[in-house]
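Internal ticket #5521
Category: modeling
Description: The requester needs a full-assembly model to guide mutagenesis choices. All entity lines are attached below as received. Residue total reported by intake: 426.
Assigned to: D.W.
Attached entities:
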Amino acid sequence: MPRRSYGQLCPIASALDLVGERWTLLVVRELLLGPKRFSDLQVGLPGIGSNILSDRLKELEAASVVSRRRLPPPAASWVYELTDRGRELGDIVLRLGRWGVSSPAFRQSDGTARPEWTVLSLYARYDLSAAMAGPASVELRFGDETYSARIDEGQLTIGRGAATSPDVIVSLDHDTLNRIFRSKGRERNRVANGVTIVEGSRDAFESFLRLFT
Amino acid sequence: MPRRSYGQLCPIASALDLVGERWTLLVVRELLLGPKRFSDLQVGLPGIGSNILSDRLKELEAASVVSRRRLPPPAASWVYELTDRGRELGDIVLRLGRWGVSSPAFRQSDGTARPEWTVLSLYARYDLSAAMAGPASVELRFGDETYSARIDEGQLTIGRGAATSPDVIVSLDHDTLNRIFRSKGRERNRVANGVTIVEGSRDAFESFLRLFT
DNA sequence: CGGTATCCGCAAAGATACTG
DNA sequence: CAGTATCTTTGCGGATACCG
């Protein structure tokens, strides 16, 4: 059974043959911050259905976007991670996010909210022109989920897990972070007061926030 | 009737809600080189079905990606064209093409071939590092279809229609252009001998080709 | 735990006929 | 030419049952 294709001799159509189906690019999004297990992917893709996720992962593997790897003992479970080609595609997915974040539809949208998505949206909100200011490394804690953001030579990098030698560590809930980004200027600092500073100064955190629109 | 949505508070998911459905990004591709009428879009999207195209155009209009405009008399028909937001999305579509052109699946693919797609693939094949060399302006004629490619300060721009003060004008069929890109080095020049030089020198055309991988 | 396989209902896609 | 209307087909969502 041949997979459905546009049947066009065109690089764009060919790319969409590989990754243009429903859910596929969201699977890539889920892997942007590092490898995940099947069940973690399910959590990050509410409503997908295990059969569809299974199909998509096989397709992505066939397209050399994702690879399946066994975790070293004692974990001994399987994880999916982006290949080099997958990370290239990931850049495009992030650009799509940058496009989406400035859309009226996004501002008015609501739905399931997850800390990881909002943290990922830092890539979309990051303002190159504002760089240089602010601390280089921030750790964000949402309950038991921890993320780190680092700015190095104007380049933003986000990861899962604790930061190494962070300038600021904050603890917050994801609703607060969302409200921070929906506000701006002085109002934003007011909302940001709901954030607990675990380590470092509040000023440092606020100047970090100024890097994002 | 609410359109189908991922229901996630995430810029990437939100973008895919707007333009992630089947055919949508290919409609954007079709408009990358300028406005088109409904029937021209149908020609460029073999197999789409007029109802689907109609739906997609309405959705793209609602998302402010495409605008519908009446042509001045005596033409008096409607055309669809990209808005500013649509061109931003167009950049992403071109990046997807750049990703797709380097995929094994594309190299092995066949299917419907159209001159416009292959001309568009110049964006994907353009090698920044090779710039500076070659003529700045080339006109490509395929039967009654004419395209122009211009390089200005290392920036490639492609359009429909005749070039202004071209360095080279060539006449070819789209199969020849495809074979040119499937070959490389000395072999490529051999294939390129099948191209008719209408104006300018064959050397200039060959150095133009060296800008593309 | 980490998936695969199957069934069922529905909504979107494909095909085509038709109309302003 | 520019779509709309209708009908069929297919893929998706959801549930559940199964297997290493």
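Resolution: model delivered.
Comment from assignee: The mean pLDDT of chain B is 93.
Ticket closed.
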